[in-house]
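Colleagues,

Please find the record for the two-part complex below.
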Amino acid sequence: MIRFTEVTFTYAEAAEPTLREIDLTIEEGELCVVVGPTGSGKTTLLRAINGLVPHFTGGHLSGEVSVDGRSTREYPPRELADVVGVVGQNPSASFVTDVVEDELAYTMENLGIAPTVMRRRVEDTLDLLGLHELRARPLMTLSGGQQQRVAIGAVLTASPRVLVLDEPTSALDPAAAEEVLASLTRLVHDLGMTVVLAEHRLERVIPFADRMVLVPGRGEPLIVGTTAEIMATSPVAPPIVELARLAEWSPVPLSVRDARRMAEPLRRRLSEVHTPSPAPDPDLVPPPVVVVEQLSVAFGEVMALGGVDLQARRGEVVAVMGRNGSGKSTLLAQLAGVRPPTKGRVDVLGQAPSGLPPRKLIKLVGLVPQDAGVLLYGETVAAECATADSETGLPPGTTAAMLAAVLPGMSMEHHPRDLSEGQRLALALAVVLAPAPPLVLLDEPTRGLDYPSKHRLVTLLRKLAARGDCVVLATHDVELVAQVATRAVVLADGEVVSDGAARDVVCHSPVFAPQVAKILAPDPWLTVDEVRHALTGARR
Amino acid sequence: MSRRQPAASSRRGLHPAAWWLWAGCMAGAAISTTNPLLLALIASVAAFVVSAKRTSAPWSRSLVVFFRLGIAVIVVRVVIEIIFGNRLPGLLLFTLPQVPLPTWAQGVSIGGPVTVEAVLQAAIQGMRLAVVLICFGAANSLASPYRLLRCLPAVLYEAGVAVTVSLAFAPEVVMAIAGVRDARRLRGRPTRGVAGLRGMAIPVLESALDRSLQLASSMDARGYGRRVAVVRRTRRLGTGATSVGLLLVIAGVYGALDTGALPAGGIPFVAVGAVLVGLGMAAGGRRTNRTRYRPDVWRLPEWLVAGSGVVVLSSLIVAPMIGVPGLQMQIYPLQFPLLPLLPAAGILIGLLPAVVAPVDRISSATRMTGTAAAAPAPPTVGRRPSLETAEGTVA
């Protein structure tokens, strides 16, 4: 269905090719997952399928990419729109109209599909993706996850033979992600659609994948194989596979169900050891950094937050979870004083952040927003660090030193836009952390991060907490919560529905439980590391 | 809300062209008068209709922006008049120090005596422009410009890429400003004043341009501008005829406004131009085989809304012809303006849309589903079952 023949692609002004001599064939009716470190060329590979690379990016592509027998050399993206549907990394950037229903119909209108057929397909898609309540909503007012589903629906309506998705679940909460992946599997199985998707959160996609393509980056050849083959040896692996390697299960299970069947001996062994320590010592209660009282925020008639009470203390890592549009980002923006609350009070170490002048604010609160790139305007990484120092009155070199601590060995000459997602996050983190704010806020920090970058982030956050800072992160990434959070707060429709020790909250929630917890339930184990420690401790 | 309940619930608000026609007529009415009472009446009619019929969509808030813009226009117009304006005789307000200018700049004056008459005249001229702006703001609030674009015939739709991208540019800039301001606050940079403005300009333009490029690539990837095989000559013929026709129409309209510039008031130009445009569209229409999803329909409410606009405009055009005074503001001698009854009554007919226009579904999205849930409720209905099965495996 999709055929890459000796494809080499070099971006304009790039010294090295991003893709080098790629030969790849993806058969019809396959669900193929593309994995690899950030910046390895996954997105380039995906966008080459319908010719957006090189038709819109520039650069030089040699070799041939063909879809359904049509070469992208002869057919521009618009002529392939009936065969390939592409959903980009940032759904809101792909919207062409302004209302959900029109957006769903747009491709069909261009393809000249009969109005009666269009009508039916729009209704089917609305049902398939659970969008029917949003059909008349303006796209700009949707939450990130809702936008993602509309973007997927907008290409689905044209019923393309090939669906290409770049991190389709990165903005979705666990339940919504499962739903989207389930509908994709249904399309593959029922209609024989070919699906190619890139994803960092392997734990989400592995049960659904037929084949995997590992893009190692730096022009190295692709590694292609069935999911089980790749997972047996892959350097990046989701918790389920790591647990399998630890417990020496063979073959490697790919779904929680398979793993649970194999996990009986491990569970018995672990229950003999001891259960993981529940909560920290309640006598040692450090002073609160943030106090939120009866906080309400309204956007017009929409109530984003309604009467939220929350405290976060020194040394705590608080994870704010909840489905898409539940008010997580709004809460973080409030803590950072981006705008004043509609009602109620936010207090950070005795001060209301929304009333502070920017210069004082950053010494108190640091927020890394969902798209970390919006914080960066410098021409180069070095310039960015230098302005950060001079503007905040820090001694020169502070930010650069912080950057070296966050991510060693980064090139200082790149433009922030040319960095990979992980590098950009590191730079934004360095800029925000340099003035040493006692309250650090992160909005969806693992979006687009590969496992090594995520691991570095976890180490850094633990270090911050150990230093006595307070970290609040809004995230859908349950594995991140399992690794780093001490407390978890679940929001629903702008209200706090549960607030407690991370272990209690996530283990008791079917949606937010990490893979290890699902496999080893009812015992509250969260991460592979915990299990490893427990086992080695027992051996000693 | 609408009297035509069944029809209203099955359709998607008024045809956007009806709103734009209505607003265009209101703007035309504003241009043809300088009576501040009538101008204020037009602005309040437009504002009332918007407040009655606008939706909760983001573009519905544009009326406020246009109101502010209108006030700015009046202020700028008055300030320019005070500094550079004509030195109209009359009641002296104050005298500005005059700047002596060289003889080659005799037509211009800077400073000098400022009279009540001069300021008033400038304010009224500014007000007229402001009311025109408010009428367009009203159209923007009532019908999204994208939807109007959808109604364009296929030939003009070709130019649509440019129009869509530029239409998206303005809201993108507004959104980018908000985003950049928040980001600058998080970086501890000033968000107000000259320093704030200077630092924001480049990132705002950069991100808005970026977004426009992404929009273009996204439109392409989704099949915009696909061609069906058409003989190249037909294609050129279509484009050529449309462009020449449009030029002729513009020339003809100019001739009709500026009597004596063209033979027969330019009417032959308009006629020939219209025929050419029609032919060009017919030829070019075969180039793309687009279809419409739920095309906007033109029914009784559309006729009433558009008609009410035409009545407003014609009442102001007819009034001076039949000798109704008071359409223009009297400056010499200065007197308080009268409210001429016929034009005022005509303008009030412009309120008709507030009664007859159906409410756009966007305003109350949940009405469609029949549930009482609030509009922003997350769409969880579809995924509840899977959530429960997940619970079963874990617990």
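Residues 174-191 of chain A form the longest helix (18 residues).

Comments are welcome before we finalize the supplementary table.
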